[in-house]
Amino acid sequence: MKDENFNPLEDTESAAALAYAEERRDNxxxxxxxxxxxxxxxFDRVGASARFTATFNLMxxxxxxxxxxxxxxxxxxxxFLIIEAIAFVQIARGLFxxxxxxxxxxxxxxxxxxxxxxxxxxxxxxxxSDRVDAFQRAVDGLEANIxxxxxxxEALAAEGPMIALTGLIILVVxxxxxxxxxxxxxxxxxxxxxxxxSIRSGMPVQQIVFSAVFMALVVAxxxxxxxxxxxxxxxxxxxxxxxIRLVSIxxxxxxxxxxVLNGEALFDGITYAIRLxxxxxxxxFVSTPWIVIAALIILLTWLTAGVRMAIYSxxxxxxxxxxxxxxxxxxxxALLGTAACLSILIGIPxxxxxxxxxxxYAFIQPIMDFMQTMPAFVFMIPVIAFxxxxxxxxxxxxxxxxxTPVVRLTVLGLRGVPESVREAxxxxxxxxxxxxTKVDLPLASPSIRAGINQTIxxxxxxxxxxxxxxxxxxxxxxxxALQYAxxxxxxxxxxxxxxxxMILDRIVQGQRK
Length: 513
Hints:
This protein has 513 residues and is mostly helical. It folds into 3 domains: 8-97 and 162-236, no CATH class; 101-158; 265-289 and 324-512, Orthogonal Bundle (MetI-like fold). Helices cover 83% and strands 0% of the residues. The protein contains 24 helices and no strands. The chain is flat and about 80 Å long. The mean pLDDT is 83.
């Protein structure tokens, strides 16, 4: 007789659920390799809720960062290692540390001065000098100072048990935290492992040994260093030889001397090219009547960013004119325009070339990192050696600092062009030039424009620094205000630089939108 409650669909779903559960248990066994039943039960608890589920892993609590490191959870391991190191340092300082070491060192230093003053006092008494009272006051003051420091040292030594107790409390709390979050963190790593089996699983012996040695070494060194300050010079001072630094300095100077002597023609050519662009822009911005330049800037702002921004631009230009900053602002724009134009003319083709050549881009990336992160005062030194002081050197310095964003964002924009669009264009017979000019560049245009904007803004940020090596303009007023503490002049000139930046930013951003 047929069962009326029999449902083949429910039976199939139940069998699929059982098969999935069994497969999950097998995966957990493969992943953890130790105590699989324990982790199966806890992973099921953790996976049943999208929220954090607290469990307790005794081994993780006992071994702490070593357990997390052996499991491959290094982000957790390093975080807990820092906290545990602080706890162990506090315990070691409280129980065995020389808490009064700094105070005793100060006492030893003062005692040397005190001995000298006592000798001077004795000599003054013997000779009947009228400075006896002065020396006696100095001796009394130094003795009182020593007494105060000695009392401070005794108070610090008495705080040892409390410091050790604080460290013990921190250690207990972090151990509990490690035990509570361990299964939750490991279950998240298991989920990643399911989609990427290249993620390390289990607890390999070499990982356990490495993790244990690394954690123990870090904690031991920290405990010794902070418990006995100044006792072991190797922990405080890096072992080196002063001759290494001197030889390195001589080598760098010899290289730059060679480059200056043998590259004179190259640097003169670069200076000539910069001068051509700079003189042309100065002729436009500085020599042209102010009313023409103001009208052109306002019109350009209106066409790109709208009427409201055009009104603001007019107000900004009026501010610079009324306060007497007009000529210096135009000189700044000419200097900035030269650096920005050359950066863009070099950066965009370089980004286009590097976008489809990963090896070349990997080669120039460290160079661009150097250009962006090295302090401007550092690379100004070789720039002055090669180009001297003045506006060409300021342009080169500005290009070094501000020229990298346009390259990076050009590469980013071109690599972000969907391959499906490029393949469609190729399938319709597009050649390389058509693909570049009608597909790649239009789709990458927002990113490229953002790179141009960032290059302009970073170049403008170098205005004050460039004034140190002979660049004229608004940066000169700010530098003068810094030298003579002229707050009013510095603030007003700073606002002029800000308004130049806002005008240029709105023009570029408005066109991009």
